[in-house]
Amino acid sequence: MANFRTVRPDEYPNLSRPFCLMQSQYDVVVVGSGYGAGVAASRMARAGKSVAVLELGWERRPGTFPESLSQTLRDFNVSGPSGGLLSGKPTRLFQLTLGDGQHAFRAHALGGCSLVNAGVFLEADKQTLQMSPWPSEIRQDSCSLERYYSRAADMLQPSVYPDNHPRLRKLDALQQQAEQFSKNHSFYRAPLTTFFDRSRNSVGVEMNENCGSGHESTGLNDGSKNSVATTYLADAWNWGAEIFCGCEVRYIEKVADGKGYIVYFLWHGNGRSVFAEEFKTQLFWVKANDLCFLGAGALGTTEILLRSKQYGLSMSPLVGRNVSGNGDMLILGYNGKEDINGVAGTNRPGPTITGVIDGRELSSRDALAGYVIQDGCIPKPLAPLIPFVVMMQRARDSASPAVPTRAWRYLKAITNLASGLTGASAARNALQRTSTYLVMSHDSNELTLTLESDMLFLRGPGEGRSEHFGKFRKVLGYVVNLAGAKMGFSYYHGRDQEEITVHPLGGANMSRDGTGREGVTNHLGQIYTGHGSEIYDGLVCCDASIVPTALGVNPLATISALAERSLDLLAKKHGYNIDMTTTNGDLDSSSVPRVLRQKQNISPAFEKSLASVGWQFSEVLEGHIGTQPNVDFEISELVGKSSSSAMRMFLTIEVCQRTDSSELQYTGICTGTVSCRALSRSTLRVLDGQVQFFVQPQDRADLTTMTYTLRLLSLEGTQYDLTGCKTVDSTAAFSIRKMWGSTTKVNVRITRDGGVEAAAGVLRISRPSFQRQIRTFRPTRPFNFRALPALIIFLAYFAIQLCLFFFRPLVPTRAPRRSLNAIKPKRPASASFNLRTKDGIEVLLEEYEPSCMVNGDYMRQGTTPQPVLCIPGVTGRANHSLFALPFLRCNIVEYFTKRGFRCYVLSPRWGCEPKIAENSTVFDVRLDIAAAVEHISSLENRKPYVVAHCQGSVALSMGLLDGTIDGTKILGITSSAVFMHQVFAYWNSVKAMSPVLVWAYEFLAGKSFPIGNPNRNGVIQKVLDVLIRFYPVAHRRDLCTSTTCRRTTFAFGLCWNHDNLDAAIHDNVGEFFEGTHTKLLEHITYMGRQGGCLDNELNPLITEKNLMNLKGLPMLFVSRTVSEVFKPESTLRDYEMLRRRFGEHLYRRFLVEGYGHLDPIIGKRAAEDVYWRVFEHAKWCMEQMDDVAKN
């Protein structure tokens, strides 16, 4: 026998696909992956159909099966009313279902029980197939199955244990014992679906030589088992079938308005079951457009049908009735005279079953009398349990053992003790003299399967108590006693003589009369809709559940043949052509399917940019949504609560690292469901889902987000796009409550049909849900300590990102991130003019021509463009003007030029060379504005409309008050933030109490205060950068780490509400704030302390005489509610003063809600929130001028 360690045991493709690749619908859906399901998958794939296979267990390949008791117990699950500690794990390989009177053993894995059975390929005899429970199509023509037995044999390739292999003691012992029976018993070697030499099987998979380990019942690791996985499923895979593991089908629903079936299932993704309620209620679904095959085994298929019936799928009342255990009995001949090597270990015993004593010919008239006896083998992982089982059996057995002599009894006790002390594989101990027998016969078919508390319950008579089974025990007892052994049974036999079957049959029995009154399915496995003969045309059972009676022999051959028959006849009925002639060629681990049907949910380029870190977690978010369009998130949530419109998302997120970024970034790939009755009557499947962790959004400044992007599909076929966002910003600084809210609240917006808004609302993670979420972190592959660093790095990254905002005031400042937001090219100025002022200073005036001339709200065609003069505040020698920033989606110059205006943008002297700028005051700038007004008046036949901001507006008011600027040459004014009166906000007023702060800075660092200048490397400037981190702001949202932003705040006060800036603006503050000088700041400080305009000698300019220069000049005062530079009271005083002196009709005041000092000019939504008001005032002024001209 070959040593299976010397060759790779699983040299064939990985058959299962990642669950996230499952499509929403297929031509054919196959539930299960045993013999019948494998046949269905293979034949339908070869018929050219798109096929999905849903298997509850996982893909288990040779080399991964347990080899010790501890490994076996970790793969063991007990279900039923008394499952105990080993219950609740339906994806484990070994499944023991405890019932009342009868128990069943089965396997959950890709390939089903074929992975852990002995692989005995024996046909049912004619007498059995002609019994009355069988449908007439088979009962009256039992020979019709022969061609399908042959077809199954061609795939599974059974062969007997070769003569040229080492002799097996247990096979010889069984043959000797067979001689004790009557002549009606025949002995032969069992045909096994096992390879005894290395070659390729019928579908092209390379099989290894069987090493004789005897581990068939716990899984062969040598790669010699010709299971369903290496035959039918490998063939189906090659022909395009898509196989998904961990999918527990719950129930099936017929499509209401057409053909097809909806299959609802749980997905056992790692950790998802921690959310017990959501796990069972938030079901996935897949649609079978043509056919749905149920091949989950007798118990699995019956359970699905019983639950489907509860959910409204009508069918025969006989579902779950007349189940058979196939007359299975497991008997031990313990501690016999001869060493038969019946326990796997160092001395390999050979395959589990090698020989058969066939007693089916005892009576040709009575099929019920037939049975077979086969040798067995105790696999090494289970060997330590056998002494315990026998000991318990002896303790329960009231009868004294029949022992030849007292000396023999003493010898038995000694060898029994030696067995426990020296181990199960010692050559001459009690276990090695233990024979194992598996009996299959005909039982009463009186087992029933029911659902109780949503759990499958097996109930029936203890078959071991029947007279029929008593005969078998007597026959075997005779043979066992001749061998000098003690007959033992399973652990449960002593408890009312209950039995365990490894071959449960029935539950969806074929009907003997072609109606639902005598069975659940017809001869093809199609399910009856009720008592009559009507069937569900596309719903087919194809496994052991349809077998109507015990077979008295291993059932795999008959199950496969029945499935082959059903598929053949159904294909002909539906007009399918199954390609049975084309061979696959060699299928190796590197092979790809010859037929590829998979559609990518994720773009290949994006998929290549991700590298899984090997970990995933699950989360549940719950909340309410409203379906009114264009409504705020919080309002939508309130509307959703009032109408009980709830939403729940249950997502499993695989963490991936971005490989296309130089920085450490993570992305999550989402799989899951969304339930919302307002969108669909069933759960919505996540077809393509991503979570971006800690991304700086382009439309928000100095914060981070976790964004969800999910493509959803409803059962009705409607596609939705869900976008959600968790926002973490400076408001969470030193606040556990706000940090919790930031990381657990998701604002969601749902669209459909290419952007039409369908719903919006708020979802949250509750505290109990978060506690469960922490427990869901699982590796995506079998656990390895080498995977821990990746998890630790991710969690550390996550914690650091949150700490950057929780400890925001303490976070070191940073330089502007200009590289992240490149400057977008804008239309350059049409012309530039160097204007000389009255005091000999040259200032720059840029002209922007109109970009279009249209009707409607814009200027009329054929008219002269209206000039607009824009005067900025103090920005220093900046690269860009506030009014023509290239970072904005639409700046104020673009806004007006698109509407037919000609814009002029002035760069006052505080933006000139340092020698001029450092000696300038606000009062001096009035001369710059006067020069600009005169220049525009000389070029245009229309008066310019003036938009002035901050100290530019103050300079304008000074020029008008002292007469330097002729107010009659101005059409109207928008004064932004301040005009004549200056009322500082709190912290600016504190700084303005004394000029000492300005003097101190000038003494230490000079006259220049840099903001956007990168060459501020002096020690004083660096110390100042540290100190101004603690400059107080009114709202936590405005705590940021940008040095330019904080320097602007220190010089002028906080100039914006950070919520109104996008990332491009905030990251490029230094591009439009170069700096300022101490003389200018000192002048501003004096004016703020006095509350109004002052000239260079600090004389007040607001006098009754000067105010008369403002008469007849229309003004719009634009103020802010959250400015920390000037209080809104500043413009209110001007507004009240002017309207009470000159009348109210020329004056307007606009208070911008939620805006700071500068964001009405540079805010991301300034065009929608502010510019329109300025534009409307300019239009109104033009209309007033036109009316005056007409009159």
Automatic annotation (TrEMBL):
Alphabetical list of InterPro entries matching this protein:
AB_hydrolase_fold, Cholesterol_Oxidase, FAD/NAD-bd_sf, GMC_OxRdtase_N, GMC_OxRtase_C
Give the stretches traversing the membrane. Answer: 787-807
Per the entry, which co-factors are needed? Answer: FAD
Pathway assignment reads: Steroid metabolism; cholesterol degradation
Q: Coiled-coil regions in this chain?
A: none
Residues forming the Glucose-methanol-choline oxidoreductase N-terminal domain are 106-323
Gene3D superfamilies assigned to the protein according to its UniProt record, in alphabetical order: alpha/beta hydrolase, FAD/NAD(P)-binding domain
A Gene Ontology biological process term: cholesterol metabolic process
Q: What is its EC number?
A: 1.1.3.6, 5.3.3.1
- Give the similarity note: Belongs to the GMC oxidoreductase family.
What is the name of the protein in this document?
A: Cholesterol oxidase
